[in-house]
Design a protein that fits this description.
The chain has 2 domains: 194 residues, 2-enoyl-CoA Hydratase, Chain A, domain 1, CATH 3.90.226; 47 residues, Lyase 2-enoyl-coa Hydratase, Chain  A, domain 2. Helices cover 48% and strands 16% of the residues. The protein starts with 5 loop residues before the first strand and ends in a 13-residue tail after the last helix. The structure holds coenzyme A. Coenzyme A (COA) binds next to helix 2 and strand 6.
Length: 262
């Protein structure tokens, strides 16, 4: 697939996906959404890529769904757009490798929803995050009403969702919406630094940890624990634990087996 609205650059084990419609503040239209899904599936299946960073070109991360495209849609068409977005962001959330959002500027509506589908969020001091949909007479369509309360709690999520007012990076940090805030010119390096620290670790273990945590958001501790025990066993069955533990005692870096994620 030819990518027109996003770019994908690989730097060793790290891939950087850049939302690239700066004239429209990287607003996500249907074509862009399809491209995000396609790129993520490709990177998810690429054994050379260990961690993915998502960021935006220009002054925005993503300023939301493309409002100009929504204008002429009827009820069924807009429902389809919502479902397409939810499916795509589920791909991001469930990819067997970590995805880091490097939030360089406006992350509004679908932009914040994309960032929330990522595993970790790092923001520039310039970032502004919000769910302004109600100001347009709509509700978030890409699972913002579901992921935001899980990240910041119900009260804070409802404040953001009901007022539509954005919050700044410092507030997002204190609310736990982002993991870290850095100066704008340090953002990509900070994301890459975290990506490198993740990429040193066992590929299967990293993918399984992500899956276990995700699973835990919709199960009780016992059911999640069962999933975790299975994952624990898989690390040994795959040979990854054997290599990691041997490398520890031999005081050398592990030679991880590069395999397509299960
Ligand atoms: N969809 C389509 N186009 C968008 C867009 C969106 N979500 N957000 C911004 N744009 C376009 C603007 O229409 C403008 O296009 P133009 O140059 O052809 O007029 C261009 O991007 C620049 O935006 P502008 O509003 O001039 O920039 P700003 O710095 O003054 O304001 C924002 C930035 C983010 C505050 C403002 O663009 C905004 O409120 N955007 C909509 C956010 C939103 O409601 N998102 C949820 C959508 S469901």
């Amino acid at each position: 697939m030819t990518l027109k609205n996003i770019t994908v650059e690989k730097d060793g084990e790290i891939a950087v996906v850049t939302m690239n419609r700066p004239d429209a503040l990287n607003a996500i239209n249907i074509e862009t959404m399809t491209e995000i899904g396609h790129a993520m599936l490709e990177l998810g299946g690429d054994a050379d890529v260990r961690v993915i960073i998502v960021t935006g070109a220009g002054k925005a991360f993503v300023a939301g769904a493309d409002i100009s495209e929504l204008q002429a849609k009827d009820g069924m068409e807009s429902r389809d757009i919502s479902q397409h977005g939810q499916r795509t962001f589920s791909i991001v959330e469930n990819l067997p490798k970590p995805v880091i959002a490097a939030i360089n500027g406006f992350a509004l509506g679908g932009g914040l929803e994309l960032a929330m589908a990522c595993d970790v969020r790092i923001a520039s001091t310039r970032a502004k995050m919000g769910q302004p949909e109600v100001t347009l007479g709509i509700v978030p369509g890409f699972a913002g009403t579901q992921r935001l309360p899980r990240l910041v709690g119900f009260g804070r999520a409802k404040e953001m969702l009901l007022t539509g007012s954005p919050i700044d990076a410092a507030t997002a940090l204190s609310w736990g919406l982002v993991n870290k805030v850095v100066e704008p010119d340090e953002l990509l390096d900070a994301a890459k630094d975290m990506a490198i620290r993740i990429a040193r670790n066992g590929p299967a273990a990293v993918g399984l940890v992500k899956a276990c945590v995700n699973k835990g958001t919709s199960t009780d501790v016992d059911a999640g624990g069962t999933h975790e025990s299975d994952a624990f066993g898989l690390c040994f069955a795959s040979g990854e634990a054997g290599e990691g533990i041997t490398a520890f005692f031999e005081k050398r870096p592990a030679n991880w087996i590069k395999k397509q994620p299960e």
